[in-house]
Amino acid sequence: MTCRQVVQLLNDYLEGMLPAADRQRVEEHLAGCEACAAFVGQLRASRRLVARLAEEEVPASVKQELLTAFRNWRPAGLR
Amino acid sequence: MKAGDAAAFEALLDRYHGPLLRVALGYVRDREAAEDAVQETWLRVVAGLDRFEGRSSLKTWIFGILLNVARSRRRRDRRLLPFSALFRRDEPGSEPIVDPDRFNAEGRWTSLPDNWEVLPEARLMSREVLDRVGAAIGELPPTLREVILLRDVAGWSAEEAASLLGISAANQRVRLHRARGHVRRVLEEYLR
Prior knowledge:
The structure holds 2 protein chains of 2 kinds.
Chain A: H1 3-14, H2 20-32, H3 34-52, H4 60-72
Chain B: H1 6-25, H2 31-48, H3 58-78, H4 121-124, H5 127-139, H6 142-153, H7 158-165, H8 169-191
Helix pairs in contact in B: 1-2, 1-3, 2-3, 5-8, 6-7, 6-8, 7-8
């Protein structure tokens, strides 16, 4: 398998979606190819960065407003 | 929570507010509009709790509400966009995952990818790099953007994302491959 072919399979590889035979060929290639191993490292780091985007606190004023809305809501049985 | 447990609702806010905001940003014009959409979503969640029957997970239900709110706001915003903004050539995400020129005739790398593991964590995870990642996602066409937002920002599984978006498993994979490919490519240029 060439680097050019491996690169096309790496997303499915990271997703765990490759058939066993392809997965084994990709892993054998990665074990012997520093460049493709670095490329996988880039894909993994990109995903980690994208996941970091979700780390946001709820602003205190928004939280208070929503909690008040929740407290004012009464389950049907308690109305 | 249906019994009125405010602590349970607060835990839900802490858990999903960030992912909801980020997903909303993928649909509306700016942060303020995204914050509004998320707030409206939470208010609809509260108003709809009685009707929530647990047939889907709470998470799927909440994000489903957000997508409805955000998409209708996007339709509203779109009427305000100049005509030219609706059409783009060289759409991000349509480029090859790696420039074909970077391989020789035998399919080996000629210009090697940088090893990011040697970068200091503080540089890789810096605010400016994160902003660039956010912008790279923002450049994607909506069909690719919504997949990467649900999968990699909100942390959904492939099956959950495909089902919420009403697309096939194969389509989900192709879109994710392209979206992640674009983000990596942008980062590689930025970090070089």
